[in-house]
Amino acid sequence: MATKSLKKRESDLANSNKQLDILSNGIFKNGELPTFKDKISETGQFPLKAKKLEILQINVGYMCNQVCDHCHVDAGPDRKEIMTRDTMRECLEVIKNTGAHTLDLTGGAPEMNPDFRWFVEEAAKAGIKDFIVRSNLTIIRANKKYYDLPEFFKKHNVHVVSSMPHWTRGKTDKQRGDGVFDKSIRALQDLNAIGYGMPGSDLRLDLVYNPSGAFLPGDQTAMEKDFKKALKEDFDIDFHNLFAITNLPIARFLDYLIASENYEDYMYSLVEAYNPSAVENVMCTNTLSVSWDGYLFDCDFNQMLNLPVNSKAKHISEYNEELLEGRNIVISQHCYGCTAGAGSSCQGVVA
Amino acid sequence: MSKTYYDPADLRKFGKITEWSKDLGEKFFEYYGKVFEEGALTAREKSLIALAVAHTEQCPYCIDAYTKDGLQRGVTKEEMMEAIHVGAAIKSGATLVHGVQMMNKVNKLDG
Ligand code: SF4
Ligand code: SF4
Fold it and tell me: Where's the Carboxymuconolactone decarboxylase-like domain (chain B) (predicted)?
């Protein structure tokens, strides 16, 4: 279990160019595996194009109370990149005027941004249909000042999406750190107590499952069944849906793959599981990702790889829906993570 | 030529066996795929059976494949180890139950 981000450790891989280098060389360079571009060209799906914007995903900062092994953000307590209120104001302007139906706040732990509550209060006023906050659960129990988060979420009708790697303590703590399981269970119980995740409740609580190692997620429906059964039996916990998400080979997960000598096998698994029908609905086709400093990306992964949108509008202050619609998506080999099996997005499977 | 009998990378080439006998190979893979589909048994149960049998057959490729398959299905290491014990119990039981044959023979020859 790591305690510092790659950035803090001054690891080579904290550098996004270095990551892109790895993804473009080796088995992809020597032709052992086809590049993502070649693969989607086979079915005439290159270039990938953005459709109408439906989801605006805002990353309010890379600071996090956890340092999960697989984190694609390379988040942690030592990351200082935090969205300012000024940038939030620029985002609010867009939120008020956009046709997107979903606003999705992520991080790091978004709650650690000092202006997080202000931002949620303001954004809730825009009356967007689905307002998601990606909460890692342990933050709710990390400090007294966060204990009332469930009530706060409820007040603003926030849709809570939380990660839960497994229904057993051992597998959860291995991926996310000691004590994470117990804290997460407690947080889920707190959320249930005020109505979140209960059958028929409008207070949406969904869980995200991503594998704890160098393997792909299993069938989302089957996993959801197993999670529901175990969490109900063992802890009387309810939740609505489970999103099975594939780990993309970037940042700390890439570091882990290389260090454990799983990189090539993992890339083979991704390419073997390639599903052309997932390509049609990869999330970059209806999502836009905004970084802590207001720059625009096709997705959170491209944000971490520093691959900006291919458009004249590069910053939230220059936001222009028409200009961004139809843009060519910037791709590399990490994209195979979105098209393996039933596909993967921040909302789970896509095919 | 490779210097070892088993190369982990060979598992990825399993599909190539159809190249030298298309019909039989394809029929086998079709059958194989069907066997592991959700049926009266869940795919998860079948995966655990496969893991146990992989061990009794001592096939390194199958062990790799069904360990990974189990992880993908959220199978825990405790469940995996128990499944292997089932295989081991049957293996050792099968050895020991032949002890009765030995006893019968001794009784007949030396009774
Ligand atoms: S995976 Fe989520 S909870 Fe874990 S370090 Fe990254 S941002 Fe934080
Ligand atoms: S990684 Fe990003 S750009 Fe690539 S397919 Fe996935 S969502 Fe699209």
Answer: 23-101
Which tokens hold the place of B85? 């014990």
Give the number of A-B residue pairs with CB atoms closer than 8 Å.
31
Q: Which CATH number fits domain A12-338: 2.40.160, 1.20.1440, 3.20.20, 3.30.200?
A: 3.20.20
Give the ipTM of the model, two decimals please.
0.80
* Cα A303 to ligand 2 centroid, rounded to whole Å: 10
Which numbered ligand comes closest to the C-alpha of A138? 1
* CA distances from residue A7 to A12, A19, A223, A305 in whole angstroms, order as listed: 8, 13, 33, 13
Q: Which residue has the tokens 């970037």?
A: A250
A14 CB neighbour count, 10 Å cutoff: 17
* Entry pTM: 0.92
Closest by Cβ to B76, choosing from A171, A223, A268 = A171
Residues of B in contact with A171 (CB under 8 A): 76
pLDDT tens for residues B33-68?
Answer: 999 999 999 999 999 999 999 999 999 999 999 999
Q: Give the total number of structural domains in chain B.
A: 1
User: What tens digit of pLDDT does each residue of A315-331 get?
Assistant: 999 999 889 999 999 99
The tens digit of pLDDT for each residue in A46-98 reads 999 999 999 999 999 999 999 998 999 999 999 999 999 999 999 999 999 98
pLDDT digits (tens, 9 = 90+) for B62-98: 999 999 999 999 999 999 999 999 999 999 999 999 9
Q: How far apart are CA A340 and CA A299, in angstroms?
A: 17
Tokens 């059976």: give the residue.
B49
Say how far residue A87 (Cα) sits from the centre of its chain: 21
Range of the domain at B83: 41-111
In a domain, B14, yes or no: no
Residue in A168, A213, A219 closest to B76 by CB:
A168
CA angle A287, A347, A338 (to 5 degrees): 75
